[in-house]
Design a protein that fits this description.
8-stranded parallel barrel, alpha/beta, globular
Length: 337
């Protein structure tokens, strides 16, 4: 297992992050996973033994049950890991039990601490944007949590480029603690992040935690152009995130060829491609069983040749969009040989 610095924190996190979204399995989260405590204990133990020191969950996953299970599974090992969770989702029937208001954040951080069985959270992330709450209020509340000692660092997830940059500017102007990371969807079948957000991550020295690196299971190897899985799968009941399936099948064809050369699975190749991207800090893997976990762990052993990486990049590259193609065009007379 290799380790990478999380943004500009100086904290080293494993290049694979264990995601606990599959823990619990209640309500709308049933299609994602139904892992209970005994199985979770084994998975977390295996992850720790493999060198993973980064664990991610959210208060909304099975309405707190994921946090409870993860906290118990870590047990005395909690002090040895970087633990991340999130806030924003609806956690009750009350009108204020959702969002990023100071009221909701302050209530939920205490609830998360209790469920996780810890007195501090290493990385506390907003789970998305809240149109009803000014960014200033959210960022001030998060800054107060860092000063209180309940939270070590703050991060964000699922923000647009403008929202992310505005947040950093507000924090800089007011002397608040800044976001240290972004958690976002990124996969070889979904490279949209590269248009506007990756340049911001590089400019602001923000860490990138990748969620759904296998595109909701579409890149797991089960799906082929003329071979769709008949058994129940996550994609069958929860077709998310959106994927251009025809393009994805072209990508899978190339990954299949490369996987055979490395005696690896298609899923391992998909994960390894992300690990070859300099902007990526850690790839979050969410598994339903130990076999999937063991398979995912092997992705760290794959080293592509230049030709293999070129093939993967070419088949998955983004179609040019404005203003990107115009910006590139206008730089042609500003290159230095």
């Amino acid at each position: 297992m290799k380790y990478r610095v999380l943004g500009d924190t100086g904290v080293l996190v494993s290049e694979l992050c264990f995601g606990a979204m599959t823990f619990g399995g209640t309500g709308t989260w049933i299609p994602v996973g139904k892992t209970q405590q005994e199985e979770a204990d084994r998975q977390v133990g295996l992850a720790l033994d493999s060198g993973i020191n980064f664990f991610d969950t959210a208060n909304i996953y099975s309405t707190g049950i994921s946090e409870q299970i993860l906290g118990k599974a870590l047990g005395s090992k909690r002090k040895d890991v970087i633990l991340a969770t999130k806030v924003r989702g609806k956690m009750g029937e009350g009108v204020n039990q959702v969002g990023l208001s100071r009221v909701h954040i302050m209530q939920q951080v205490d609830e998360s601490l209790k469920r996780l069985g810890t007195d501090y959270i290493d990385l506390y992330q907003i789970h998305g944007f809240d149109a009803l709450t000014p960014l200033e209020e959210t960022l001030r509340a998060l800054d107060d949590l860092v000063h209180s000692g309940k939270v070590r660092y703050i991060g964000c997830s699922n923000l647009k480029a403008g929202q992310l940059m505005k947040s950093q500017w507000i924090s800089d102007k007011n002397g608040f603690n800044k976001f240290k990371s972004l958690q976002a969807y990124y996969s070889i079948a979904g490279r949209d992040l590269e248009r506007e957000i990756v340049p911001i991550l590089e400019d602001q020295n923000l860490g990138l935690m990748v969620w759904s690196p296998l595109a909701g299971g579409f890149l797991s190897g089960k799906y082929r152009r003329n071979q769709m899985p008949e058994e129940e799968s996550r994609r069958k009941s929860f077709d998310f995130p959106p994927v251009n399936k025809e393009k994805a099948f072209d990508i899978i064809d190339v990954m299949d060829e490369i996987s055979k050369a490395h005696q690896a699975s298609v899923a391992q190749v998909a994960l390894a491609w992300l690990l070859h991207q300099k902007v990526v800090t850690s790839v979050i893997i969410g598994v339903k069983n130990e076999d999937q976990l063991r398979d995912n762990l092997k992705s760290t052993e794959i080293q592509f040749t230049e030709d293999e990486l070129k093939k993967l990049n070419e088949v998955s590259q983004l179609a040019p969009e404005y203003p990107g193609w115009m910006v590139d065009f206008m730089q042609e007379d500003r290159t230095v040989n």
